Amino acid sequence: MLRYAIIFLVIALLASIFGMFGLSGVAMQAARILFFVFLVLLIVSVITGRRVTEA
Are 9 and 28 in contact (CB under 8 A)? Predict the structure, then answer.
């Protein structure tokens, strides 16, 4: 998922260089959403973690 966020970020940067403001805005929004989803999943993963139970 982080890969898709980076891909959309690169698309947004390239589109903004070429002056396609509509496309750059959409790609940047998609990258931002994917980044925050990834960040939330990372935080949940770190908090829950793998708890080793001793038998």
Answer: yes
Cα 23 from Cα 39, distance rounded (Å): 24
Q: Tens of pLDDT along 7-49?
A: 878 887 787 777 766 777 787 788 888 888 888 888 888 888 7
38 lies in some domain: yes
pTM of the model: 0.57
- Give the chain's domain count: 1
How many other CB atoms sit within 10 Å of the CB of residue 40? 10
In a domain, residue 53? The reply is no
